[in-house]
Specification:
With 112 residues, the chain is an all-alpha fold. The chain has one domain. The chain contains 5 helices and no strands. 6% of the residues are buried.
């Protein structure tokens, strides 16, 4: 079994640098949470998971991100404009997900 320590020893400064750049690129494209979901899915979701399970797990992932982001918005004063723009891109991503969820639930409630 691979331990946390094994993984830490395998990760190089170049790996970390590449990872950080990927985060910046995803953030600048307004896709940070989607990119995080992709990593989370690859690391934790069984390959045989069905569409319903994937949908529910993604919804849970985004809801956690939404909670964290809304908490961060409270403390956003004092950051520079570039970081404020990045926060706005994250807000847009969360809002798109929120709108999709609202539409899904309004369809369910309308059919109930």
């Amino acid at each position: 079994m691979v331990t946390k320590e094994d993984i830490i020893q395998m990760v190089t400064k170049e790996d970390i640098s590449h990872f950080v750049e990927g985060i910046r690129e995803a953030t600048d494209k307004g896709m940070l949470i989607e990119a995080g979901w992709g990593v989370f899915r690859e690391m934790t979701v069984p390959k045989e998971a069905d569409a319903d399970q994937l949908h529910e797990m993604k919804r849970s992932f985004f809801c956690g991100a939404m909670h964290m982001f809304e908490s961060l918005r409270i403390i956003h004063e004092g950051i520079d404009q570039k970081d404020r723009n990045r926060l706005n891109l994250i807000a847009g991503e969360i809002n798109r997900f929120k709108t999709a969820m609202e539409l899904q639930f309004s369809d369910v409630e309308g059919n109930a």
